[in-house]
Design a protein that fits this description.
282 residues; alpha/beta; Rossmann fold; Elongation Factor Tu (Ef-tu), domain 3
């Protein structure tokens, strides 16, 4: 490996590893609202005693009860202390969320999940609209964690409303010396976005609106050899941005992390699926 390649790997290195992959029964122990656009649900229970999440892009899959019947169909743990899950036989309703603020509560741990309110709510937002302390869910993951890029001089975050919790973890986890900028793929007034990121990330960061074209917005912000780019939004919106970063700018894999958090018209979209079907992730 050349000296330049070694420098690149060091600059954008992200520490991490595998976590115990299991299904955890979760009880709601608190409900709040960090800003009006989010419902914050605090989850805990005995199964969370060994919960681990050390990366800003970590995700857990949360299984919700059916909004009409109340039936909760979800995986269960393979066994006490074992790795793996036993999948349910029937159809399940689930969505991915960024786990926030893992912390000790009694003999176990608690996490927060922030659920975005929607005009056309799905199972998560419907559940969040009437959630109460004592309600139960099942949480699976995170399968693994990858930390922030602690050596990168600059980090550019391109996120929509669903990815703001992840952005807040990036801002919080990065050193104070790292220059952080956020491009919000969100329409309308961004004051609530700024309020949320400042409160959750712990500092003020430059914030601009993405507009119609994510690639164009990133081009205006600029990406140099010392900038790490994290992008998470609706999958189709990210195709042009990914092509710009990987083809036009020829950025190496270590310098970019892109994830489709959801896809318009697709229920329960798997964010591991290729963003661009014509050019799958390598």
């Amino acid at each position: 490996m050349t000296d330049a390649a070694n420098t690149l790997v060091s600059l954008f290195q992200r520490q991490g590893g595998r976590n115990r992959f299991t299904a955890r029964e979760a009880t709601v122990i608190a409900v709040g609202s960090p800003v009006a656009e989010f419902v914050r649900v605090t989850l805990s229970g005995p199964d969370f005693a060994d919960f681990v999440s050390t990366g800003p892009a970590d995700h857990v899959r949360v299984f919700f009860p059916h909004p009409e019947t109340g039936e909760l169909i979800a995986p269960r743990a393979a066994g006490p202390g074992e790795d793996g899950i036993i999948r349910p036989e029937g159809p399940a309703l689930s969505r991915d969320f960024t786990p926030l603020h893992p912390r000790r509560v009694g003999d176990s741990l608690a996490i927060d999940i922030d659920i975005l309110r929607h005009d056309d709510p799905g199972p998560a937002a419907l559940w969040a609209a009437r959630v109460a302390v004592g309600d139960t869910l099942v949480v699976v993951g995170p399968r693994g964690s990858r930390g922030a890029t602690l050596q990168a001089p600059r980090v550019l975050l391109v996120v929509d409303g669903t990815a703001l919790p992840s952005a807040s973890r990036w801002i919080s986890d990065l050193p104070a010396t790292t220059a952080v900028e956020v491009i919000a793929d969100i329409e309308g007034d961004l004051s609530w976005v700024s309020e949320y990121l400042r409160a959750e990330g712990g500092r003020e960061v430059p914030l601009t609106a993405a507009g119609d074209d994510l690639a164009a917005a990133v081009a205006v912000a600029g990406v140099d050899a010392e900038t790490f780019v994290f992008a998470a939004s609706e999958a189709s919106r990210l195709i042009g941005l990914r092509r710009y970063l990987r083809r036009d700018l020829t950025l190496p894999r270590e310098q970019v992390a892109i994830s489709g958090y959801w896809k318009r018209g697709t229920a329960g979209f798997d964010h591991h699926a290729p963003i661009d079907p014509d050019d799958p992730e390598d």
